[in-house]
Amino acid sequence: MARPCAVVGIGQTLYRRQLDVSLEGLVREAALRALEDADMTFADIDAVVIGKAPDALEAVMMPELSLADALGAVGKPIHRVHTAGSVGASTAITGVTMIESGRYDRVLVVCYEKQSEGNATWALSGGRSGGQGAGGTFAPWIRSYISRSNAPEYIGWMVAVKDRQNALKNPYAHLRIEDISIDKVKESPMLWEPLHFLESCPSSDGAAAVVLGSEEVARRCPQKPAWVIAHAKRTEFSSFPGRDTVKPQAGVDCSAALYAKAGITNPVEQIDCAELYVPFSWYEPMWLEGHDITPEGEGWQLTEKGDTEIGGRFPVNPSGGVLSSNPIGASGVIRCLEAANQVRGTAGEYQVDGARVALGHAYGGAAQYFAMWLVSSELQPSF
To answer: Which domains does the chain have, with CATH numbers?
Structure first.
């Protein structure tokens, strides 16, 4: 049986200008904040796991080697994880499995992206024509979802307003738009039909870190731990005949495995809040359905009713989500650590009252990689 594992330290950094900090400084600052939160130093860490999106984004190859000094990893095991945009959550789960194995007691997980030193649109594009990018890939699938579900056009605008209002409560949010409104989103430029500019994520420079510990370590740490009660990863090919790009089977399988491990039979009632990877507004209702949180055709209804707002029935992205901060390689671990913040009671102004169980989620590639974890304020929650 796997050993229990908990989040015992959390740290984030966010910079808006390239010259504010070096790449090494970016990751080290996040790591130091997580270590301070756990009342540890680099000397206490047994192993380090680093995650980021494609190396082409900054053109720094094998960053696990060049960043070893900055992360106190010289002479220690240091591992690299890469699963496209889902990499942050995949990296966090890799750290959990290292604790669960019994080989390590304290693992530092660090993920980052410094997009001001790269070109995300170029790095994520394909084909001879060049620059379609992520939005150009996902927009047709979003349009298919709208057609399939008969969702009204304003649902995407509602998600954008909600997440950007939540971001105003988060000091680590990149985009902070004080006067956000449905009309402002609707009137913003159309980037990829049906996605407007304000329904799309930014390109951010940022890093995030978590310190993971065994049960014995967690019991001794000063902060309340967030127990990792279940995790799952699933992958499918990006293209094959009959592939459902609106509700990918790998996403269905990933969530099913996650819920089975935790003993969850009714996610919308048994999970108190979720940090879902929503780089474009319509992916909130799409993932509510894609991970069987709601039945098909009802995800957008949860959004329309206001149930995904802080204080609603099933709050989604109380931190502001990927729509408000998107250092790609770190975005997934931010979803995981923000879920941990909720069950630790350390989310500050965007804290969900009574949050006991929270979901952290990420997806990547052509909606083909999925990584999810459930964290709880209790080691063995009852459902």
So the answer is: 5-120+203-220 (3.40.47.10)
